[in-house]
Amino acid sequence: MKLTSVDWLIMLLYFVFVLGIGFALKRYMKTSKDFFQAGRALPAWVCGLAFISANLGAQEVIGMGASGAKYGLETAHFYGIGAIPAMIFVGIFMMPFYYGSKARSVPEFLRLRFDEKTRALNACSFAVMTVFSSGISMYAMARLIQALHVFDGLFNALGWAPGGIFTFSIVLSAVIVLLYIFLGGLTSAIYNEVLQFFLIIAGFLPLVLLGLKNIGGWAGLKASVPVAYMHEWKGVMHANTNPMGIEIVGIGMGLGFVLGSGYWCTDFLVIQTAMASKNMESARRVPLIAAIPKMFFPFLVILPGLLAIGLPTPHTTTTVHTENGVIYHETNVVSKQVEEGRGLVPAKINPVTGQAMLDASGHPLLDYDMATPNMLLHYFPTGILGLGLTALLASFMSGMAGNVTAFNTVFTYDLYQSYIHKGGSDRHYMAVGRWATVGGILLSIATAYAAINFNNIMDTLQLVFSFVNAPLFATFLLGMFWKRATGHGAFAGLISGTAAAMLHHGLTLPIEAHTGIHGGWLTVVHHYPSDMAQNFWGAIFAFSTNFIVTVVVSLFTKPHPESELVGLVHSLTPKPPRAHNRWWKSPEALAVAILVCAVALNIFFA
Amino acid sequence: MNLDLRIPMGLMFTFTGLILTVFGLRTNGDVALYEKSLGINANLWWGLVLLVFGMTMFLLGRRGQARLAKEPPPPVEEDEVRRGH
What we know:
The structure holds 2 protein chains of 2 kinds.
Chain A: H1 5-26, H2 32-37, H3 44-53, H4 58-71, H5 77-80, H6 84-100, H7 106-113, H8 116-148, H9 152-158, H10 165-215, H11 217-224, H12 248-266, H13 268-275, H14 280-301, H15 303-310, E1 317-323, E2 326-332, H16 336-339, H17 371-379, H18 384-420, H19 426-453, H20 457-469, H21 472-481, H22 487-507, E3 508-510, E4 526-528, H23 531-556, H24 587-604
Parallel strand pairs in A: 3-4
Antiparallel strand pairs in A: 1-2
Helix pairs in contact in A: 1-10, 1-18, 3-10, 3-13, 3-14, 4-15, 6-12, 6-14, 6-24, 7-8, 8-10, 8-18, 8-19, 8-20, 8-22, 10-11, 10-15, 10-18, 10-19, 12-21, 12-23, 13-18, 14-24, 15-17, 18-19, 20-22, 21-23, 22-23
Chain B: H1 6-26, H2 42-70
Helix pairs in contact in B: 1-2
C-alpha cells in the first residue's frame, strides 16, 4: 500500500485533535467525580453515541465485516436481537437503579444491592477482563497495521528495521490513549468515542456506497451472493438451513436474552457512559439514543464484508495491446493468496509451505478478517484512504480507551478504596486513578506481547471471559426485580453459573472441530452444528443455572431489610418522577418507536 | 462539562474536509488515481460532504457554548432524598 502525504496529514490531524481534547479537558478535572464519572454532567446525545462507540472497537468493525462475509445478513441478528432489545431494556427498566442508586460503578451497585463478596468477585473478574481485552485490541491493531503495511513506507524512509512495526504500533497507540485519559479521564474517553463514531461513518459510508455502485446496487449484490446470505430470518427454524447453523431458540434465548442482555445491561464498559450523563432522564435516554444508530450500523459494518465476498475474485491477467506497431504485454500478477480466495477475501496461506490452507472438505480456508480492510484498499484512492485508515485506527484506540477508563474506575473505587486504602482524600483517589491508568495500559501491552508468543492465548482468554460473563445477567435481573434475592444467593449463583458454562464447554463440541480449545475437553456428549450454536447454548445453560441457584439459596438465607433496598429494587422504588415533558418526549415513547423501527427493518430484510 | 464537544469535532471535520477537497480539486481529472473509486473523484465529493458537516457542527457548538456560558450553573441534583426512606 502506498500512502502519500495527504493520508499522513489526515491521520496526524486526528491525533492532534484527540490529544488536544485531552489537554483542553485537563483544567476541568478537579475532583475524582470529574475524572471517573465525567462530573455526571454530560448531555444525553454525547453519552448515547459514546455508549455504542465503546463497543465499536476493532473486534466489532473487523469482526462484523468478517462475519458478514462468512454468514451474510444473518449477522445482523447481533444487532436486531442481540443489542436493540437489551439497550431498550437497560434504558427503561435498569437505568433507574444504576443511576438512582448513586453507585459509581457496576460492582459498587452489587455491593449496595447484595454484599461485599459479590462486589469483590465482580470487581476482580471485571478488572482482569478489561485489561486483557484492551491488550487483545492492541494486539489486533498491531497485526492489522503489519498486514496492511501502513507504516512500511514511513519505516523505509526513516531507515528503521521493519521488524519494529509491531512495537511501534503498540507504543504509539498506548501513548496516545494513555495521554488523553490521564489528562481528561472519562470525559476525554467519551469525547473521543463520539469523535470516533463520526469518523467510522465518514470512513465507511463512502466505502459502502462505492462497493454497492460497483456491484450493481442492491439487486446486483443479491445476484452475486448465495440466496441465504441476503436473508436475516430465512431457514432459521432449523440449524441446517441457515448459514450460522443455529435455530431460532438458540438465537432468541442465547443471543437475545442471555448474551446480548448480559453485555449491554451489565458491562460497566458501556454502562459507565450512561452513568456519566447529567440527570436521570438523560441517563435513561442514553441507551435509547444509542439504539437509533445501532439499528443502521449493519449497513456500515456488515455490508462491506458481504460486498467483499460478492465481488469477482481477481485473477492474474495478461492484456495485449498494440501501440504504434509495438505489441505490449501487460501482466497483472495476483498473489496465490488472493486467487485462491473468494471475492476480495483472501485465502489463508500456510506460512511454511506457501500453499493455501484447506478445510476438511478440501475448500481453501478464507481469511475473513481481511474482508473489510481489503475493501478499503480496493476502493479508496490516496486521500480518502487516509480517512478510512484513520477511522480504523480510531476504532481500535477508543475500544481500548473504554476498557482503560472502566478499569481505572473499578480498580480505584472497588478495589483500592474498598480493600487497600480506605478514607483517603479525594485528591489521593484521583491520583490513584491516574496511575491505575498507567498500570492498566502497561498490563495491556504485556498481554499484547504475550499474544505473539502464545498462539492460543487470545482464544483462551475470550473463552474464559464468556464463562464469566454468561451468567451475569441473571444476577442483575433477580437483584433488581426480586426483593427476596440475597447476597449469598447472588454469590453462589454467579459461581455455579460460571461452573455450568465451563462444564457445558467441556462436554460439547462443534462438528468438524477438534477437542481442546473448541470444547469437549472432558468428554464429548453432544455435537453442535456450529461453534456459534455451542456458544449460545452454553450461555443459556449458564444463565439458567445461575438463576435457579440464586433463587434456591436466597430462599434459605436471610433477606435484606426492605428499607435498605429502596432505590435498588423495582417494587420498592417510587416511580421516577415524570418530568414536565409531554408523553411523546418520554423515554418510554422513544423506546416504543425504536422497537417498531427495529421490527420493521427485520421484516423488510427477512 | 464546560467544553461543547461539537466545537473541536466540527473543527476536525472541517479541516479534514478542506484537505480532501483541495486535494480532490488538484487531482481532478487524474484517471489513474480515481480508477480505484470507479472514476468518481471520491476525495472532492466526500471532502465537500465532510466540510459541510464539520461547519454545521462547529456553528451548532458555538451556539451551544454561548448558551452554556449564559446559563447559571445547573442546580445540584435532588435525588438524594430517595435513599433511606
